[in-house]
Write a structure and sequence with these properties.
Strands 1-4-5-8 form a 4-stranded mixed sheet. It has a 4-stranded antiparallel sheet with strand order 2-3-7-6, with no helix packed on it. It is 51% helix and 14% strand. The chain is built from 10 helices and 10 strands. It has helices spanning 14-41, 46-54, 73-84, 88-107, 110-122, 237-273, 285-316, 324-349, 361-371, 378-387; strands spanning 127-130, 146-150, 153-164, 171-177, 187-193, 199-201, 215-226, 230-231, 275-276, 279-280. Strand 9 (275-276) and strand 10 form a beta hairpin. GO terms for molecular function: acyl-CoA dehydrogenase activity; flavin adenine dinucleotide binding. Residues 235-389 form the Acyl-CoA dehydrogenase/oxidase C-terminal domain. It catalyses: a 2,3-saturated acyl-CoA + A = a 2,3-dehydroacyl-CoA + AH2.
């Protein structure tokens, strides 16, 4: 085959590149200036939410028929990556809006989609995801939250832990046991609203990183909701939860990628300016090799993440791509391990300055750690990959 300059197989489209430029400009102008204060004060990044909402970037994945932008999975990844490059806490706004609402998109009735995706797309509400519990982390199927049928309602009781943006979000996808005999096949999914009677929240967790994104327990105390708020059929909730994670783990890879890129960009600028022994430390081969390794690993993570995003999009459109589970787990696991290595090296390159809060790399290092843990620890990702070897 003859070569061609417009051989588009392994590059994002022009629209994707334009989206990246737009999000990067917005992130640098409207989100980056607040990132250090958001971390220092452990406060919700209100400025970022306002900027993202004003530019329709807070939930780009919502389909057009429900008032959303209808962005594909790669576009969603690029938005999250570019926001995470300046502020990981803020990148959890678009990421968790997708995580919380995807069960409704994948399995919800038309009525549920209309009711809950519209306000999300408009920016009137955020969406959180309630799977984990105090005694059900990696073993999510061991959950104890119960939903008992009562006429045309369900009554929910239980505690959900590690819920991102809890208290800020209006809507919550909640997994609960409807048939205790059936383990994972006895779990159903529901939409719970912040204003439902019996819903309350614990104190925000005091965390190592992503301090601007509140993580709280969600308490369900005799929460009575209409039966039509069940997402899909009874007993299909766990399958929906797992299918959701196949797609959304790629958004965590994107977040890790952005954090790593932000750290490399800062370190690159620093080593050009910092002089020791009469010349910039960037002239020393040992430093150059560190930067080369950082850039190489980020590029490998990006290619894996973008390919997984493309696969996610094809699956969402009805394609039978059987190895999305492997690809999503691989992207998340690899990119988050890379983010931890790269941010640690960035701190090293800044020396003593890297260890202080006057420079952003220590924040990026703290923020990177969670990407190896949430949406399935990297140990669990390796189990998932081993069970789904292509």
């Amino acid at each position: 085959m003859a070569g061609s300059a417009d051989f588009d197989l392994y590059r994002p489209s022009e629209e994707h590149d334009m989206l990246r430029d737009a999000v990067r400009s917005l992130a640098e102008a409207k989100i980056a200036p607040y990132a250090a204060a958001v971390d220092e004060e452990a406060r919700f990044p209100r400025e970022a939410l306002d900027a993202l909402t004003a530019n329709d970037l807070h939930a780009v994945h919502v389909p057009e028929e429900y008032g959303g932008g209808g962005a594909d999975a790669l576009a969603t990844v690029i938005v999250i990556e570019e926001v995470a490059r300046v502020c990981a806490s803020s990148s959890l706004i678009p990421a968790v809006n997708k995580l919380g609402s995807l069960p409704v998109i994948l399995s919800g009735s038309e009525q549920l989609k209309k009711r809950y995706l519209g306000p999300l797309a408009k920016g009137d509400a955020m969406f959180s995801y309630c799977l984990s519990e105090p005694d059900a982390g990696s073993d999510a199927a061991g959950m104890k939250t119960k939903a008992v049928r009562d006429g045309d309602h369900y009554v929910l009781n239980g505690v959900k832990r590690w819920i991102t943006n809890a208290g800020e979000s209006e809507y919550y996808t909640v997994m609960a046991v409807t048939d205790p005999e059936k383990r994972s096949k006895g779990i159903s999914a529901f939409v719970v609203e912040k204003g439902d009677e019996g819903v309350s929240f614990g104190a925000p967790e005091k965390k190592l990183g992503i301090k601007g994104s509140p993580t709280r327990e969600v308490y369900l105390d005799n929460v009575r909701i209409p039966a039509d708020r069940m997402i899909g059929e009874e007993g299909t909730g766990f399958a929906t939860a797992m299918k959701t994670l196949d797609h959304t783990r790629i958004t965590i890879a994107a977040q890790a990628l952005g954090i790593a890129q932000g750290a490399l960009d800062y370190a690159k600028g620093y080593v050009r300016e910092r002089k020791q022994f009469g010349k910039p430390i960037g002239d020393f081969q040992g430093v150059q090799f560190m930067l080369a390794d950082m850039a190489m690993k980020i590029e490998a993570a990006r290619q894996l993440t973008y390919a997984a995003a493309a696969k996610s999009e094809r699956v969402a459109a009805g394609g039978g791509e059987g190895d999305l589970t492997f690809q999503g787990a691989a992207a998340k696991c690899f990119a988050s391990d890379v983010a931890m290595e790269v941010t640690t090296d960035a701190v090293q390159l800044l020396g003593g300055y890297g260890y202080t809060r006057d420079y952003p790399v220590e924040r990026l290092m703290r923020d990177a750690k969670i990407t190896q843990i949430y949406e399935g620890t990297n140990q669990v990702q390796r189990i998932v990959m081993a069970r789904n070897l292509p």
